[in-house]
Structure formats: C-alpha cells, structure tokens
Design a protein that fits this description.
With 193 residues, this protein is of the alpha+beta class. It has one domain. It contains seven helices and six strands; from the N terminus they run ββαββααααβαβα. The protein has helices at 24-32, 55-66, 76-81, 83-86, 94-100, 126-134, 163-192; strands at 7-12, 15-20, 37-45, 48-54, 118-125, 150-159. It has a four-stranded antiparallel beta sheet with strand order 3-4-6-5. Strands 1-2 form a two-stranded antiparallel ribbon. α1 (24-32) packs parallel to α7. The longest helix has 30 residues, at 163-192. The protein is globular and about 55 Å long.
Length: 193
C-alpha cells in the first residue's frame, strides 16, 4: 500500500522500513517487543489508522490495548473487543442494535457511531511475495526459499482518536518488556557463573 502521508525510515535490529511518520514510533515500539508488522497507514481512510500484524502478534497487540475488562460500551476495552457487538446484541433495544449491524473494516465514516475496532484475517504467501519483490536482489546467492509459505495476517483498523492512548499503552508495554528482558538476561548470567 502506497501512503500519501509523510514517511520516516525506522530501523531495529536487521529490520528497516519507511512508515508513516505519525505512527513510526508505534511501529518501532511493536518491533522492539518482537511484534511483527507487515504494512500500516496512519490514515488509510479518513480518521482510520491501519496496521497489519502476524496473526499471533496482532492478538498480543490487541490484548495489550484492551488491558482490562470494562462493561462500559464506550470504553477502549469494549471497542477493541467488540463485546457489545457480539455478546450483548440480543439484549439491546432496536436503536442500539442498529449501531452494530453491518460493521466492517470497509466503513468509511470513521467507524459510525460505535467506534469499534475492525479486524480482517487474510492469507499471504510470503515466499511468493519475496520472489516478486526481492529475488533479483539475491540472484547471486543460493537461498533456500520454500515454494509456499502462507502466513495469516491480522489487519487491524482503529479510530485515529484512539492513536494517542494506543501509543502510550504500547510504549509502556515496551518499557516493561525491555525491563523483563534485562532481568531475564541477568538471571541467565547468574546460572552461567
């Protein structure tokens, strides 16, 4: 996906990518926690942030955001989990039910009235993608690329109004992750001595 937004080159380990400037720090924090992202856009549609993750890493990401159960249907937890859309739909009055009908990641009106996050899972053949985009870069090297390497990708779209809190939650999670990594490394060194 080609973005019209201002781009910024980010690097971590052996990974580097041009990403939209408004979400560059968020993507970098994800990488620092070993969360694999594939594509992203700070405004895929008006007021819609979009990030693609490896399926399991996407699950980790949304659990870091939802953080704690909250029955308030306007809470971040409720909008991330879409709990009202699925679990309580039969208990809602007709007007409220209409808020949750027909929701999809294609909604271009900033998620309608519910502001629930949208998800899509789709397969991507990573081997095919590599051959189409990078094979000429490695033509002199004998790479052992499988014929097929299909991954499930979790596409997450959320309201831009949530971006500030999402960045904060992921930044805090990254700090905890790094602290844990340092402690774990220290514990492993104790056993080696």
């Amino acid at each position: 996906m080609e973005s019209k937004c201002k781009r910024k080159l980010i690097k971590f380990g052996n990974r580097e990518e041009d990403v939209d400037e408004g979400i560059a720090d968020l993507i970098l924090d994800c990488w620092k926690m070993d969360l694999t992202t594939f594509d992203s856009c700070q405004e895929l549609l008006p007021n819609v942030v979009w990030i693609e993750f490896d399926l399991y890493d996407g699950e980790k990401f949304i659990n870091l955001i939802a953080k704690e159960y909250n029955e308030d249907k306007n809470s971040l937890y409720s909008r991330v989990s879409n709990i009202w859309k699925y679990e309580k739909k039969d208990k809602l009055d007709d007007e409220s039910k209409n808020l949750y009908e027909g929701s999809s990641s294609e909604n271009t009106e900033a998620f309608g009235k519910d502001n629930c996050w949208r998800y899509d899972i789709h397969p991507v053949d990573m081997a095919y993608h590599f051959r189409q985009n990078h094979e000429d870069e490695f033509e002199d090297i004998d790479l052992d690329i499988p014929e097929v390497d299909i991954k499930l990708i979790l596409s997450i779209a959320f309201p831009k109004s949530d971006l500030k809190v999402v960045k904060s939650l992921i930044r805090d999670a990254r700090k905890e992750y790094e602290k844990f990594q340092v402690e774990e490394k220290g514990n492993n060194l104790k056993y080696l001595n």
